[in-house]
Amino acid sequence: MNKQSIVLINRELSWLSFNERVLQEAQDKTVPLIERIKFLGIFSNNRDEFFRVRVATLSRVLRHQKKAEEIIGENPVRLLNKIQKTVIDQQIKFETVYSSLLKELEQNNIFIINEKQLSAEQGAHVKTFFRDKVLPSLFPIMLDSAVSFPYLKDKSGYLIIKLGKNDKKKKNKYALIEVPTEELSRFVVLPRVHDKNYIILLDDVIRYCLEDIFPNFAHDFTEAYNIKLTRDAEIDIDNDISKSFVEKISKGLKDRKKGLPVRLVYDSKIAPDMLDFIMKKIKLGKEDNPIPGGRYHNFKDFISFPNIGAPELSYKKAIPSKHPDFINKTNLFNVLKEKDVMLTFPYQSYEHIIDLLREASIDPKVISIKITLYRVARNSNVVKALINAIKNGKEVTAVVELQARFDEEANIYWANKLQEEGANIIYGVPGLKIHSKMFLITRRESGKINNYAHIGTGNFNGDTAKIYTDHSLLTSDKRITEEVEKVFVFYFDNFKSGTYKHLMVSPFFMRKRIVQLINKEIQNAKAGKPAYILLKLNNLVDIGMIKKLYEASAEGVEIKLLVRGTCALVAGVRGISDNIEAISIVGRYLEHSRVFIFCNGGDEKYFISSADWMTRNLDHRSEVAVPIYDKNIQLQLRKIIDKLWEDNTKARVLGSKQNNEYRKTGSKLKVTAQEDIYKLFQIKKS
Predict the structure, then answer these.
(1) Boundary of a domain, candidates 108, 124, 140
(2) Which strand (E) or helix (H) includes residue 142?
(3) Residue 313 lies in a domain
(4) Which ranges of 4-135 would DSSP assign to H, the alpha helix?
(5) Distance CA 196, CA 176 (A)
(6) What is the pTM of this model?
(7) Is residue 125 annotated as part of the catalytic site, yes or no?
(8) Domain count across the chain
């Protein structure tokens, strides 16, 4: 299919537009001040990952010059130049936002000061802190033009230091220090002075104490500038058949740390000779995305900015509610025998998932638990419940995806832990990422075998469940549990892909089933019947699906899209997508759930899914979409989607201009959907 034959927005530029929406949250004065600082951290972390993955991929494609344009859909050099310009423009805006937030912090008696602004008392405190906490973690490297430049780690921040001489005939000395943020907080909170709070960054603690680091080097002055290098994060897996898959992934992780540089960020005030020295030593040219920045880099650390100052400077704590069907219930299986239950996070408690697994781990009727693990929490209660189940004689099988990007090491760790306890571990399917979010609990009840299933949109991760919006369906409906069992059979035996009437399973049937559902809407529209599609996704970039939605729009099907991140589809283009509206919501919570709703002639069909509409999800991953049959749950889902669509404070219009204009609904009442949905789930106390 010719990618140029339909109207599209480049996915990289669309993603940068999404990150601009994150930056808008840092500008939004209705967001509490400390949270706005944290949004700067999220923006920075997102951008780092973008360079590590997407820009690195583009750079790799450039090596195949003849096919590069065919693969990407446009000239890769021109695209990289567009990315570079957009990133620099965003960086300028970022610095402006940061400066304004510093002023607002000061208005609220929170002062971020540097090494030149310390009082004598603060300086003494910093010196003591440096000697006791910081110095043991510092390992300076002296640089010499005759010595090869040391390896710069990805995701780490460095200070390059000049030990200068006033006599120009004498050589300056240079050194490199990694800022030890893995061992220490980036933010050092100083003693309060009256009602004023003071913070100094770890970088500036080091700057203040440079004389204590280099006492043996004669110099007249010192200069220190921040630099940061971003590396290609792709894992190359070798074909050595003597190695296990775990060994190959482990080796790939080590090699990733030595990935090719794709971006250098540096303090724009750095001396030109120092910048040239660094660029030459790490073998980067001007075409390799050097980004001039401010005094500080690695702003991802600002995600952990300390919550100091008045309570109203941070989000008010939102306590998730209990699901009404699970309150005061001592046996959750009895509830699920009677009805399906859908949990919606972070509005409802993730503890229900842990409670169900914990109950299964000690229930004498439970025979086995099967589960897919893609990204788990650092201190995972899910894994603890599985280990407890093993200790209580249950058979536990975990399908662990070792190629979950940036979580590979954690997944290897948990897989080993489970294996040590006696779990059956399946390391995915060759050539296919396991991205489904399922578990299956098998019980022996009155001589019969019954199954209880979980199918969700989010990972089994109690940490992200506090900030990601997701849905989890819990059911004993045989129509669904029997097909979930088929998916697990496929994971055990890759030759048994199975057939499915209820679940939509990729890579085998999901695309085909979705196309059939869209075709049904097209047929109904042609026949003059009601026809509409409501989609909530993280990303919409698959060319085939976009083309199908354009076709449906042209035939009169009304389509509403809620796409948080990348959207290559262009809504509202005359003659192509007149009947498509697309918005994106970025707010307190990360909109992560995927929901598909089809009019189906008035008998609506509802699905929740682990899959976005991307080629990788539909064709190269194992994903599951589950139908929602319970009418009450359908009603609940529809209320959530309708409320999101009413949003006029956090919703931005997705259009060809990519300008992230806030959506106007015509309502005089301000609607912040996430706040309203939170209220929707609060149980009224009698």
Answers:
(1) 108
(2) strand 141-143
(3) no
(4) 11-27, 33-50, 56-61, 65-72, 76-107, 120-129
(5) 34
(6) 0.89
(7) no
(8) 4
